[in-house]
Amino acid sequence: xxxxxxxxxxxxxxxxxxxxxxxxxxxxxxxxxxxxxxxxxxxxxxxxxxxxxxxxxxxxxxxxxxxxxxxxxxxxxxxxxxxxxxxxxxxxxxxxxxxxxxxxxxxxxxxxxxxxxxxxxxxxxxxxxxxxxxxxxxxxxxxxxxxxxxxxxxxxxxxxxxxxxxxxxxxxxxxxxxxxxxxxxxxxxxxxxxxxxxxxxxxxxxxxxxxxxxxxxxxxxxxxxxxxxxxxxxxxxxxxxxxxxxxx
Length: 248
Known about the structure:
Shape: globular
Order of helices and strands: EEEEEEHEEHEHEEEHEEEHE
Number of strands: 16
Oligomer: single chain
Strand order of the largest sheet: 4-3-7-1-2-6-5
Radius of gyration: 17 Å
Helix content: 10-25%
CATH architecture of the largest domain: 3-Layer(aba) Sandwich
Distance between the termini: 33 Å
Low-confidence stretches: none
Largest sheet: 7 strands, antiparallel
Number of helices: 5
Mean pLDDT: 92
Strand content: 25-35%
């Protein structure tokens, strides 16, 4: 059921990237990798709610990192502090939590770093510092990357134009993924497909998949993905799926 949540902050961090912070009016535990459906306004334009993964969550507030990519997110960027949004949350299946002794890699691309930020915060609370690989098309400021910089065991950053870190795409700078016990990834589908192809033991790979959604609860059937043993829907069966479950 949708609940009204007050906007505490809707801040422009850099160019077309925003941080939305709303009051947490939900009584449920929220896990990294889960998402919320947010109704941008009370009119019929846009008609459908939009899915947003959690960037962070506490007892008092929920945070979402988003990028303006269309009319819906453009309208969302105009919403002001004190206004209310209708939110359905938490939804979907999140990332599995590892044992402390596991060797872990986090791989993110573009705005796909959002759910990985929340995951990293939870891993750090458990004393885990993973190796992190982040790829972007161009420069991203430290205000967005600070958590990854401060709380990684090692960090590799690439940009396609060479404006930050190494020049190129992030998958070109990852060697021997099979040496890790667990790999968490979120980003563009071409990046996820490459990672999926790179790893032999796909059961230790967990992918947070992005797709357009109409309802967020598996009714509209719009976020279909082909699975190894059955057809699945990202909103209901995911958005986090094991590499062994999917065919990319």
